[in-house]
Specification:
The protein is mainly alpha-helical. It folds into 3 domains: about 40 residues, no CATH class; about 45 residues, no CATH class; about 35 residues, no CATH class. The protein contains 6 helices and 2 strands. It is elongated.
Length: about 140
């Protein structure tokens, strides 16, 4: 395909997408991820694997550079969450708290956007807030 004159320019490759994408997918299915990565490296082709979110937890790069922070989920489940993907002067913003339970901060969020205690109580009475209800 590299020598195909119908694919010489980017515009031609875009126009060829209806037949080109299935053809490339067919070729890629013949290889495992490690083999494709090696072929791209050898050919000096820029690439990055597209992973599913659950693949992050075992990704060697994220594990090696400390990009996953330990946390505790509601219900006591221990896991790791990805940190923000940047550093400033060698400092990476940390995970500042564990994820809240659903509705845990309803009162504080509603107060921050202007609801008073009576308004929050009315929302609770109408069943419009999540299952975890704070008492004020």
């Amino acid at each position: 395909m590299a020598a195909d004159p119908k694919l010489a320019t980017n515009n031609q490759r875009i126009e060829a997408r209806p037949w080109l994408v299935p053809k490339v997918a067919e070729i890629f299915k013949r290889y495992g991820m490690a083999e494709l990565e090696q072929k791209c490296l050898e050919a000096d082709i820029s690439f990055a694997p597209v992973a599913r979110p659950q693949d992050l937890f075992d990704h060697p790069h994220l594990l090696a550079n400390g990009s996953l922070a330990p946390t505790t989920l509601p219900g006591g489940v221990k896991t790791r969450l990805p940190l923000l993907p940047f550093q400033m002067l060698g400092w990476r913003p940390p995970l500042t708290s564990d994820p809240p339970e659903v509705g845990q901060h309803n009162d504080a969020v509603l107060a921050a956007i202007g609801y008073d205690a009576a308004g929050i109580a009315a929302l609770k009475a109408a069943g419009m807030l999540g299952p975890k209800q704070e008492t004020t």
